[in-house]
């Protein structure tokens, strides 16, 4: 009887492991929460962050990527000296109904990100009175000019605990692993708008990975954009 119970328990554990693994693979490379047009925004602080929720003049968006963390520094942007930054984002998100994703910018010469520190910055303390509590719906990683070695060191995003996206372009990583889901956004500007797949939409792949969204620049907006995927808008205006 004991052996039978142990066998049933072992089978149960194996099935749970398989289901968990399948769930991870199912989310990997596809972030359903990000299937909408969004814009980038790089405010200087609370004085102008409200402008991030305005609509670009050439494309309607439903969400915004807003600077929310920096590498090489455990202090979050504006956490000290400008706490109203987070309060305004929270209020404008409520007023507009737009989705809000954090934005992390870095290049290969920057320190490697500590994702646990980034998570604390984006998510704030586990305190419902903090404006960052459940404020960000995900994190966009714009990391460029990186080596293969650097990509290996920063590939595991599991400590973030939120869905992520990352850009595809010069020196970007295509090996991110996130159990909450990860997707890739093609940067279709600075010449890339004149090349496949940004130009002719002939494929949904770029640098060997599936493209979830195409991002075009307001300053280099082509006559035709790919309409088989959501369109993101890059720029400050």
Commentary on this structure:
With 237 residues, the chain is α/β, with parallel strands linked by helices. The chain has a single domain (31-234), classed as TIM Barrel (Alpha-Beta Barrel). It is 23% helix and 22% strand. The protein has four helices and nine strands. Strands 1, 2, 3, 4, 5, 6, 7, 8 and 9 form a nine-stranded mixed β-sheet that branches. The longest helix is centred in the N-terminal third of the chain and has 26 residues, at 2-27.
SSE topology sketch:
Blueprint: H1 2-27, E1 38-41, E2 63-67, H2 84-96, E3 99-107, H3 115-123, E4 138-144, H4 148-153, E5 164-168, E6 182-188, E7 205-206, E8 209-217, E9 231-234
Parallel strand pairs: 1-2, 2-3, 3-4, 4-5, 5-6, 6-8, 8-9
Antiparallel strand pairs: 7-8
CATH topology: TIM Barrel
SSE string, helices as H and strands as E: HEEHEHEHEEEEE
Molecular shape: globular
Estimated helix fraction: 10-25%
Return the average pLDDT rounded to an integer. 84
Number of structural units classed as domains: 1
Tally the helices: 4
**Oligomeric nature of the chains:** single chain
> Any idea what the CATH architecture is?
Alpha-Beta Barrel
Radius of gyration: 20 Å
Percentage of residues in DSSP E strands:
15-25%
Structure summary, number of beta strands: 9
